[in-house]
Amino acid sequence: MNYSTLLYDIRDRISFITLDRPEKLNALTQTSWKEIRQALKNGEKDTGVAIHLITGNGRAFCAGDDISILTQVKTISDAEDLFLDCIYGLVDTMIHLQKPVISAVNGFAYGGGCEIVLLSDLAIASEKATFALPECRIGAFPAIFSVFGPAALGVKVSYELTLLGEPISARRAFEIGLVNRVAPHQECTADAVRMAQQLMASSPMSLKITKETSSKILGERLPDFWIACQRFAKEVSRTQDFSEGATAFVEKRPPLFVGH
Predict the structure, then answer these.
(1) Is 250 part of a structural domain of the chain?
(2) Where are the beta strands (DSSP E) in the chain?
């Protein structure tokens, strides 16, 4: 399969999924969400793949949703396509994968990029990486982290990231459990590969059963996530604050929120 927003390669039983819009800091479009999902599903079916590894091309892992996409969300149908089809689809797939997913966070991991790290089974961050969930600052909604963050990291930590929206360092991400290790910048991907090799020394069946058991805590939240996505599609995306936030970001000015 040919991909337009990522590079897909299999080496030494590892499927490398490299987000590949470096000029946009690998920001996500509807196509990006769908292609990441398809790449993971292809790796699941491939008997030559044991581990999935997600990283980014250039100086970013992923800067979140492409703001130009948000400015195009004008109707409930537009919002449903983004949240119910694209985003929910990837989240559902990641939670139910049988093979482990490692994120090698080589740079900025903002918005949806930070949320992909949250949903990964393991993550290694470059010492230069930073993480942030700035959605509330632009009138949007960090749906994935709002639903799964409290279960994975705790309520207070989730609030720190989603409500404040301030960037945090790789070291802070390690302290709160968002990533497993911090590596020298040039060693980030190599360390992730070494972690993948460690995983492949274990029984595939044991890994599968362990993942299925551990991921139940997130799988139980999927109905809540579906409701959150519907709420965004029907309510948040139609507010003046949402429109103002996206427009202000594009125009590089502070947003003038009105609270509805």
Answers:
(1) no
(2) 6-11, 14-19, 51-56, 60-62, 101-105, 108-110, 122-126, 130-132, 168-169, 181-183
With CA atoms as reference, report the closest residue to 153 among 174, 129, 132, 133: 174
For the stretch 108-147, pLDDT in tens is 999 999 999 999 999 999 999 999 999 999 888 899 999 9
Domain coverage including residue 70: 6-206
Into how many domains does the chain fold? 1
DSSP 169: E
First-residue to last-residue Cα distance in the chain: 43
* Residue 120: half-sphere exposure toward Cβ, Cα within 13 Å: 29
Amino acid at site 50: A
DSSP, collapsed to helix, strand or coil, labels residue 166 as coil
- Average confidence (pLDDT) per 10 residues, the chain, 260 residues: 94 98 96 97 97 98 88 77 90 97 98 98 98 92 95 96 97 98 98 98 95 95 93 79 84 86
Predicted model pTM: 0.94
CB atoms under 10 Å from CB of 31, counted, come to 15
30: domain CATH number is 3.90.226.10
The two three-digit tokens of residue 43, written as one number: 């790796």
45 domain residue, yes or no: yes
What is the edge-to-edge ordering of all strands in the sheet holding 60-62? 60-62, 108-110, 130-132, 168-169
Question: At residue 166, what are phi and psi to the nearest 5 degrees?
Answer: -80, 140
> pLDDT for 151-164, tens place per residue?
999 999 999 999 99
Residue 259 counted as domain residue: no
